């Protein structure tokens, strides 16, 4: 069974863990100094936050699968959807070992498709992640070694 993945970049990990734990009525399944993840069953979502993104807000979306057959199925859907599919392959990101590929949707939102194969004691250096994101013109993604700081602006200031 597949699971929707949402990754949000945050500025304050502790405050954000408190907010999302109250929202989801449960504590995260993984907590690190720069990362937290909730594996929710209702709705079935892998919801992650980190301080490693480009700027606070939505970093990327994804589809997590449970086995290699499902991964092959989702990879076929990526090819059918069109666009530039970036096959990242085996990687370490977000304290997990995974096999993944990336594509941007028509709105420019990055989508990752992945199968998690194990845990990792490190976040990952972003090498494969950034290569995939640069190919899709998305730099400093969640697995980048350091977050970039951008001046916050309101959308409607005149």
The portion of residues assigned to helices is 10-25%
Spatially, the strands of the biggest sheet line up as: 2-3-4-1-5-8-7-6
> Which strand-content bin applies to the residues?
35-45%
Largest sheet: 8 strands, mixed
> What oligomeric arrangement do these chains adopt?
single chain
Q: What is the structural class?
A: alpha+beta
- Rg, nearest Å: 15 Å
Give start-end ranges of low-pLDDT stretches: 144-155
Integer average pLDDT:
83
Query: Can you count the beta strands?
Result: 8
Describe this structure as you would to a colleague.
This protein is α+β, with helices and mostly antiparallel strands and 158 residues long. Helices cover 22% and strands 38% of the residues. The protein has helices at residues 13-24, 68-81, 127-135; strands at 3-9, 30-32, 35-41, 44-50, 57-65, 86-93, 96-104, 110-119. It has an eight-stranded mixed sheet with strand order 2-3-4-1-5-8-7-6, sandwiched between helices. The model is unreliable at 144-155 (pLDDT under 50).
Please outline the helices and strands.
Elements: E1 3-9, H1 13-24, E2 30-32, E3 35-41, E4 44-50, E5 57-65, H2 68-81, E6 86-93, E7 96-104, E8 110-119, H3 127-135
Parallel strand pairs: 1-4, 5-8
Antiparallel strand pairs: 1-5, 2-3, 3-4, 6-7, 7-8
Attribute tags:
single chain; alpha+beta; 8-stranded mixed β-sheet; 3 helices; 22% helix; 38% strand; globular
Quick overview:
By secondary structure, the chain is α+β, with helices and mostly antiparallel strands. The protein has three helices and eight strands.
């Amino acid at each position: 069974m597949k699971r929707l993945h949402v990754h949000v970049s945050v500025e304050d990990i502790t405050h954000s863990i408190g907010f999302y734990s109250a929202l989801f009525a449960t504590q995260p399944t993984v907590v690190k100094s720069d990362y937290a993840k909730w594996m929710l069953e209702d709705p079935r979502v892998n919801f992650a936050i980190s301080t490693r993104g480009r700027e606070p807000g939505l970093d990327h979306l994804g589809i997590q699968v449970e086995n290699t057959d499902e991964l092959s199925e989702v990879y076929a859907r990526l090819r059918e959807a069109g666009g530039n599919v970036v096959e990242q392959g085996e990687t370490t990101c977000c304290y997990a070992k995974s096999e993944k590929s990336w594509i941007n949707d028509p709105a420019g939102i990055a989508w990752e498709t992945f199968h998690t194969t194990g845990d990792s004691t490190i976040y990952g250096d972003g090498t494969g992640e950034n290569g995939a994101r640069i190919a899709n013109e998305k730099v400093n993604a969640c697995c980048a070694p350091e977050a970039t700081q951008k001046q916050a602006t309101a959308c409607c200031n005149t």
